[in-house]
Amino acid sequence: MASVIQQVPADDLVLLRVTHSNIKSFLADIRFYRQMTVEAVKEKLWKKCGTSVTSMRLELYDDSGSKISELSDNMRPFGFYSPQDGYRLHVIDIDPSSISAGGWIDDTSLVEKYTISNEAYDKLDGTFRKFKEHLPQKDTTTSEAKVRLSHLPVCVKIYLAHGKYSNSQTSKNNCM
Q: Is residue 36 packed enough to be buried (19+ CB in 10 Å), middle (13-18) or exposed (0-12)?
């Protein structure tokens, strides 16, 4: 049995780029059915961008950026406004008390950050700092350097002559 999406004609779906007036970083490509009401489109957008249906105004722009229309009648079908693939649907949040209105979502510098003193952090259990202290210390001294100074002229000659190291495994190990 075919799914509901497979039963819908392809020309009934439209792919639009969605932008938001308050959230500059919000950009999404969303598919809509042309037979949906404008209110149903707003409900779908509410789930994507967070602006409530009652606080949302929609504007439709063509692919060149020219405004085609404002979707003002919630009961009209979305297809009435003749949306095409590649058009842009712009969400305008008219709620002045919206969380996105003051730039709180885009600009994280407006949000107060949690800070803790080093002394208070040291008293906590299960911190990364305590985990790191319990790790075994890595020995940074090696018994043999990869490139021995006495082999350096040989390595240079092999590399220059062939454009790469020789096929000999010992030469590779000594020259890397």
A: middle
Q: Which fold has domain 4-93?
A: Ubiquitin-like (UB roll) (3.10.20)
**Domain extents in the chain:** 4-93, 145-176
Sequence-ordered alpha helix ranges (H) in the chain: 4-7, 38-49, 118-123, 128-134, 152-162, 169-175
Q: Per-residue confidence of the chain (176 residues) as pLDDT tens digits? A: 455 555 555 678 999 999 988 888 788 899 999 999 999 999 999 998 888 899 999 999 999 999 999 999 999 999 999 999 999 999 998 888 777 776 666 667 777 888 999 999 989 988 988 888 888 776 655 555 555 666 666 666 666 666 555 545 444 455 54
**What are the CA-CA distances from residue 7 to residues 56, 79, 82, 95, 135 (Å)?**
31, 18, 22, 38, 59
Do 147 and 155 touch, CB atoms closer than 8 A? yes
